[in-house]
Amino acid sequence: MKPPKENAAPTAMGDGTSTKEMAGKLPVDYSQKPTRSKVVLFAKTTHKLAILKIGCALVLDESYAWNKTSEFLSACLNEKERANLAQCTLKTLPRDDIEEVALKALGRTSGPLPTFISLEDDANFWASLAPTFELVAYSYAAFKYLPRHMQIKMLAQLKMEVG
């Protein structure tokens, strides 16, 4: 046995030798089982698989991985779970990118997607694409169903803009 060193460092282990890996660490006890996460213990199997599949797609970061993940999620999650997942994800995006993501997800349709920003922006967007006969038909129908005080207010505003 080696005699103890007199000027051993405070982090020295055992006989005075010090290593970066062992300094200040307690010995590992492998006799106890590691504690498992509550998610792992109580989550449904489909939810665990969904987490794993999303994690794989994040690591691969390829379009085919995300396409396979969306196919898998549509098969193993119900509509409410998928809607909540989509809403949670869309909330993380800047407002300008939401419409672009929705277009990629849904594909182009015959009409434009709503702007998701404000009702007035949405109405202006649709009106800019509509032919004159549609503008007349929709404006008349909308005006007819407005409450009386709103009709008066709208007429006054139109007189100011036209006159």
Topology record:
Layout: H1 38-42, H2 45-60, H3 63-76, H4 79-91, H5 95-106, H6 119-129, H7 132-144, H8 148-162
Helix pairs in contact: 2-3
Identify the notable features of this structure and list them briefly.
mainly alpha, 61% helix, 8 helices, elongated, 163 residues
Model description:
Residues 1-22 are annotated as: Disordered. The protein has a domain at 37-92. The termini are far apart. By secondary structure, it is mainly α. The chain has helices spanning 38-42, 45-60, 63-76, 79-91, 95-106, 119-129, 132-144, 148-162. Helix 2 (45-60) packs antiparallel against helix 3.
**Average pLDDT score:** 79
Number of helices: 8
Distance between the termini: 106 Å
Q: Report the strand count.
A: 0
Radius of gyration: 32 Å
Which H/E pattern describes the elements?
A: HHHHHHHH
The portion of residues forming beta strands comes to under 5%
Weakly predicted, low-confidence segments = none
* Global structural class: mainly alpha
Helix content: 55-70%
Region (Disordered): 1-22
